[in-house]
Amino acid sequence: MSNLFPPEPLDELLTNQILSSACDKMANENIEEAGCAVCGQLKPRKELSKLKSVKNHLHVLHAEGVTRKEHKKSSDPIKEFSGPVLDYRCSHICDSCRSSVRKGKVPDLALAKNLWLGEVPEVLSKLRFIERLLVAQVRHTCCFVKISTGQRKMKANALCFETPVPKMY
Questions:
Q1: Model's pTM, two decimal places?
Q2: Is the pLDDT of residue 166 over 70?
């Protein structure tokens, strides 16, 4: 291997391979996402199937006291939604939730495990991208730092957001 500087320009074949790879990774079928009705997460369409495929197994997602209908006044009675705890705006189920439901188990991240938040209020539905990041529901990681005696200690919560593009072209 020679360390020539500057490197030689790319040949046409390698340039075409790089561009083809980038175009394939950015094709609609690789980027398009939809929500899972069971866990509410955005997943690639490739990992989703129709919710109808498990409609006979949805009884495992019934949970008392998890859902509430919206009420505008404190005097309005508190009512629950009937049926399985699902996001009814979504018509698909992800592969991991589907395999759990078919086994008769509630998936770990299912809305039926007290993760149901309800409809997004209109005020929050029109936020800009940065504002959405600020109010996003995330899992907090508690950080502890071990230090030598006599120094101050620090404990904090770290918010981590994954970069949406894992490979840069």
A1: 0.60
A2: no
CA 93 to chain CA centroid, Å, is 13
Bridge partners for 34 per DSSP: 43
Residues 137 and 117: their CA atoms lie apart, in Å, by: 11
Burial of 131 (0-12, 13-18, 19+ CB in 10 A): exposed
11 and 57 Cβ atoms separated by less than 8 Å? no
Spans of all domains in the chain = 14-116
The DSSP element (H or E) to which 155 belongs, if any, is: strand 155-158
Q: Is 106 within 8 Å of 59 (Cβ atoms)?
A: no
Q: DSSP letter for 36, please.
A: B
pLDDT digits (tens, 9 = 90+) for 12-22: 999 999 999 99
> How many CB atoms neighbour CB 38 within 10 A?
30
